[in-house]
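fwd from M.: "can u put these together and see what the complex looks like"

so here's what she sent:
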Amino acid sequence: MRTLHDLDTPFAVVDRSRVLANVARLRERLAPHNVVLRPHVKTAKSTEVAELIFDGRPGPITVSTLAEAEAFADKGFRDITYAVGITAQKLPRIRALQERGVVVTVLLDSVEQAEAVAGIPALIEVDCDGHRGGVSATGDELAQIGQVLTESGSLAGILLHAGESYFAYTPQELKAAAVNEADVARRAATTLRQAGLDVPTVSIGSTPTAHAFTTDIDLSGITEVRAGNYVFFDLVMAGIGVCTVDDLALSVVVTVIGHQTSRGQILTDGGWMATSRDRGTARQPIDQGYGLVAELDGTLIPDLLMSDASQEHGTLSLRPGSPYPLPNLPIGTRLRILPNHACATAAQHRQYTVISSQADLVVENVWERIQGW
Amino acid sequence: MRTLHDLDTPFAVVDRSRVLANVARLRERLAPHNVVLRPHVKTAKSTEVAELIFDGRPGPITVSTLAEAEAFADKGFRDITYAVGITAQKLPRIRALQERGVVVTVLLDSVEQAEAVAGIPALIEVDCDGHRGGVSATGDELAQIGQVLTESGSLAGILLHAGESYFAYTPQELKAAAVNEADVARRAATTLRQAGLDVPTVSIGSTPTAHAFTTDIDLSGITEVRAGNYVFFDLVMAGIGVCTVDDLALSVVVTVIGHQTSRGQILTDGGWMATSRDRGTARQPIDQGYGLVAELDGTLIPDLLMSDASQEHGTLSLRPGSPYPLPNLPIGTRLRILPNHACATAAQHRQYTVISSQADLVVENVWERIQGW
């Protein structure tokens, strides 16, 4: 029986109970709405985590790489949306999946791409908040692309992503982002339908907006909701109020390797190689450095932050102005770092060490992450 | 014959000629000094890159993980310094390497660690600039640790790292950091010798200071110099004047997947998963965003930056105030991103696609990176 004391640090830990609770919460949040949940598997990149979402059966998923699509296809997943703008060079791998009976739906936002994907189901990306890609919900371009896709039998529908919701800091802003995402989606669907086109899928979602889809939000006309980060959550999500720190299911175990007491610093063997360089909370009202610090059983150490990182060194220090003394953490002490951004921190690891619940240090399983592209 | 046009993007490219030139430059810089070069292999994590440094033979190296030590031991390397503070739990893997005839020298900066490593060669980390770990060169602690190590036959010497040299922005500051690193090292060696202890190894170095060791710098008493990043270099190093942008040997090939012309943006399939979240140039006089953008043959596109990143999306835009128009880069165009921080960008990839020189698009080789810890 191995425990979190036995493995060489640094390593990534997943708390299975918290994943299950996070998964149940979003399922319940969406239950009153007539929508399909199509989770984005890019955060965990783990077929085992997806099994927790779908109760062991394959379900509809969103992927960020063809490597994810292929790995999930190998596990029997047959309904996959590849939500990064498509280019012609990636089509052979998608056609190979099609030939295996996998429906891979691609994403695009130009006539040029629409012409290239003939015969492959495609969603048109619609911009709802100026975040990244997508065409306007009301301009001519949307209908033009829809027309091209329809001619080749490829039009699957539309997809929106309220990426700017990651910068919402009040429940009101989050709700406004959620309402806007659904409103713009319906407007875009109307644009296409008024052009005489079929729009079977109307896909929206992000972890912040999906959790803001309370029963008073109108999701009529929306067929599916996507979210990814919510399986693990992180300090950025806690900072915008989508979860609490107690919901975080991913952490990194590190070991104390030194002290610089005169500078108020404790050094660990977990640097940015273990946590990533993500500083997502730097732009939030409360900057959490590279992460919060907990004891190995998950108990948070008040005001202790991972304040700096080099490749294989983490620096821990107290939050500026803290009334606490620097805790006594001898060399060899194991700690857990709660990360800013679960997607980025998880990406630094090849596998997850799985525990059944927060304070249970027994290693229940090891789950591999899908690597590369 | 495959070329950079044939592989699925994103992927990391190494320009072998530039690595060779970078390797030769540091070798020449250090040649007038009576020091051993002990490269840090943490940047490339590739035994093939190390072969370029050592002309195909094993040589003395520095590692940041035991996974690196083990992989290099498998390739015949027998003199390895593990330059992250040691803890007792990592000793079994080090003893296993010892039993294979590999000399693994560990690093520490406390009496407690010194007591734990009995029988394993150990360097005492000395602090030269308040950057991270290490004891004072002149305090009692250094001699106390040296005494404990000597009693168990473990004292190998001392090690310093001028980590703050990464924040030097003038040749004068770089030179001062280099002089200080050597001066403090000699002071620390004297402290130990005055306590009657042997100090065979006096190890200093960082990529910025190693390149500042011109012939007028006194390296007497220094036995070895370490540097890691210099095999690839990056925009942070170019920003502090240690190299030019034309020396960068690592880049990431990405594909244009969309345009937001009204916002002056071009979207690619290379997000932070391909470049890392490192924003090292953000604190430099010239902020390079997530990296500079070049054509596939390496020709820089004036003023075009990778200005933003999400997981699998890169946003390119012109540097603020640029007189140039947004270049015409159709969907499917392949580009190369020159990264802020080679160590972090390389860490996002499992392998390197190797080309012989800058404008030669033929894939000459694929080199695997050492993964994990």
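replying to her w this: The mean pLDDT of chain A is 97.
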